[in-house]
Structure formats: structure tokens, C-alpha cells
Amino acid sequence: MSGGSYYVPATSRWPILGSLAMGTMMVGTGTWMVHGSIGPWVMLVGLVGILVVMALWFRDVIKESMQGLYDAQMDRSFRWGMAWFIFSEVMFFGAFFGALFYVRNLALPWLDGEGAKGVAALLWPDFTATWPLMNPPDPAISGPDHTLSPWQLPLVNTLLLVSSSITLTVAHEALKDDERRTAHNWLFGTVLLGVFFITVQAVEYYEAYHQMGLTLQAGIYGSTFFMLTGFHGLHVIIGTIILASMLMRVRRGHFGAENHFGFEAAAWYWHFVDVVWLGLFIFVYVF
Q: Which of these, 82, 86, 68, lies nearest to 5 by C-alpha position?
């Protein structure tokens, strides 16, 4: 590739195979939810297909990068792609936070007779709006026995994630200075902090289900709690896997002081996950 030329990737089969695998997973998921039967197995086949396609596709991209095929134009393309992906994630979590705010600030007060739609109080005249909602208006639904204290396990997880962003930043700065050993060690610490976070959240979920009665069936508080923290936990798991992959690449001598967008993209994703958690800690646990 000569300087300033426009790189055109070779013909790839991965986009169409990825689309087929994703379609298979969605058909399986829909079949599972509506009919059961073989739906879970179809969904599993699609999921495995997606993971295989992702692994092989990223393998090809890494090979092309290591061969020096990418130029500044491709680097900008990768950056814009990652930026738009994170923007889509912002909208994803924004919808869930919006649902939480809608319930807390509009729906519950309406059911208690407040606001322009206070006539909704006719549905359950004895209902009193509080948050966390321990006593759902429908007597057929049992609320949680207790709520989680934000100053125990959630605070531990907050400290873990904030610390992980710091260690990741140190690793990134070390990589930019071409101090590979330092970058490797601090990135390894970041991966460990991610694993610790996942472990602490698993303990929190166990206590919520078995000791506090806080489940997905425990009214709107239980469903919004697990919807927000569960999807965030999934993102932490994905981010930890990504960082572990970056750790392997650093160990193998990949990346340079100026050419390491794969590492940088992983850092963007992890910092985004960290910011989302701070919002969860404030609006789900504290207030």
C-alpha cells in the first residue's frame, strides 16, 4: 500500500454469514418465547454462529492491521464506527433509564391521584406512591421484602469499576509511551477488577433473590432493577472479554505507540460501561 492510497478490503463472506447467524438466533428466540419446543436450540445455534463469525472476522481484521494494510483513512473509519456503536449503546441505556424515570415521576404519582392523569387512582384507590415500590397496587403481585443497601455491595462494585478505569488509563498511557510491560501489568489488573465486579454482582443477585425477595416478579421495582443492572452486567462481561483479548494481543507484541486503535476502542467501551454504572448507582441504588 502506498502512502495516501485508499484501502479497499478484500471480498468477505463474514457479513452475510453474520446476518444469517443473527437471523437464526432471533427466529429461535421468538419461537422459544411463543412456542417453546425447539426454540432454545435454534437460538443457541444462532448465538454460537454469531460468536464464531465474530472471532474469525476479528482475526482477519487483526491480520490486515498487522500486515500494515490500513492507513489514516481506515483509522478514521474505525473510530467513527466505534463512536456510532457507543452512541447506539447510549440510546439503549437511555431507553431503560427513561422507563425508570417515567415510572417513578409520572406513572406512580398518577396512580396515587396526582397530576393531570390522577384519575388513574380509580384503579387502586388505596394505593400510595412510594419508591422503592414495596407494595405494588395489584394484590396479585408481591413486592420485595427488603431493598439493597447502596453502601454495601453496590459501593464495593462502584469502587471496583472506578478503579478499573484508572488502571486502564494507566495501561493506555504506558502503551502510548511504548512501555509494553507496564501496559500489560496494568491491563491485567483491569481485567481482574472486571472479574471481581462480576463476582460481586453475582453474590448481590443471589442475596436479592434468596434473602430479600427482590426478583423479576417483585413488581415494577424488581423488573426495572434487574433490567438495568442485568444489561449493565452483561456489558461488563463483554467488556472484560474484550480487555482480556487486548491483554493477549499486548502479550504477543501487537500494537505500537502510535498504532493501537483496537486497544483504544476497548478502552472507550470500558469507560462507557463505567459511566453507566455511576448512573445506576445514583438512580437505582441511592435515590
A: 68
